[in-house]
Design goal:
The complex is a heterodimer of chains A (114) and B (117). Chain A has no helices and 11 strands. Chain A has 114 residues and is an all-beta fold. Classes of the chains: A mainly beta (114), B mainly beta (117). Chain A binds chain B through residues 4, 6, 31-32, 34, 36, 41-46, 49, 51, 89, 91, 93, 98-107, and chain B through 3-4, 31, 33, 35, 40-45, 48, 50, 55-56, 58-59, 91, 93, 95, 98, 103-111.
Chain lengths: 114, 117
């Protein structure tokens, strides 16, 4: 059974704080790692798709790194804003698996207080 | 352009009833996926369509669950004899076809929250 773990489960920060969370996934048969942001009552929004060991991607104040050999990815948010409040999901895609059979973690719920 | 839409947004039903959940994918997306997120869990894969056919239905939990996509566009997830454990958010996503050695980005709808009383 393929398992994807995210930590912490929830996080409360003040506006302006920088924060990061972790996604752990199987290091074998790696194909891709997806990060999504899911605000309440909205659709999950794709942030990054990462495929190469050592990949680092950035989108505004949000960035992510990938280590496929040890099986983890970090998501960083610099200078958190209240609009960053959401659940951040990572999803593992394994080589040889069915297209679209993403294996999700339980998410990290971020709350940013003004 | 319009994103993935799902109807209804909320559905409350009684144990034992039949429900249908609808997904309208992004126009031109041939691939369509259903996931289910139970309370405290991450989304779990249910089924994936490529065109009209189910390419992978390994995630359907039992034979009470069935999904169709008769014209390769709109899909309906059908649940018979609902149970309280079926209560969850049902997410639909769509993507371009993909292919060997390609990574496809899935575009999600807002989900249908199903509550079985």
């Amino acid at each position: 059974i393929l398992n994807v773990e995210q930590s912490p489960q929830s996080l409360h920060v003040q506006e302006g704080d920088s924060t990061n969370f972790t996604c752990s996934f199987p290091s074998s048969n790696f194909y891709a790692l997806h990060w999504y942001r899911w605000e309440t009552a909205k659709s999950p929004e794709a942030l990054f798709v990462m495929t190469l060991n050592g990949d680092e991607k950035k989108k505004g104040r949000i960035s992510a790194t990938l280590n496929t050999k040890e099986g983890y990815s970090y998501l960083y948010i610099k200078g958190s804003q209240p609009e960053d409040s959401a659940t951040y999901l990572c999803a593992f895609e394994n080589y040889g698996g069915s297209q679209g059979n993403l294996i999700f973690g339980k998410g990290t719920k971020l709350s940013v207080k003004p | 352009g319009a994103g993935v839409s799902q109807t209804p947004s909320n559905k409350v039903t009684e144990k034992g009833k039949y429900v249908e959940l609808r997904c309208d994918p992004i126009s031109g997306h041939t691939a369509l996926y259903w996931y289910r997120q139970s309370l405290g869990q991450g989304p779990e894969f249910l089924i994936y369509f490529q065109g009209t056919g189910a390419a992978d239905d390994s995630g359907l939990p039992n034979d009470r669950f069935f999904a169709v996509r008769p014209e390769g566009s709109v899909s309906t997830l059908k649940i018979q004899r609902t149970e309280r454990g079926d209560s969850a958010v049902y997410l639909c996503a769509s993507s371009s076809p993909g292919g060997p050695s390609t990574i496809v980005e899935q575009f999600f709808g807002p989900g249908t929250r199903l509550t079985v009383l």
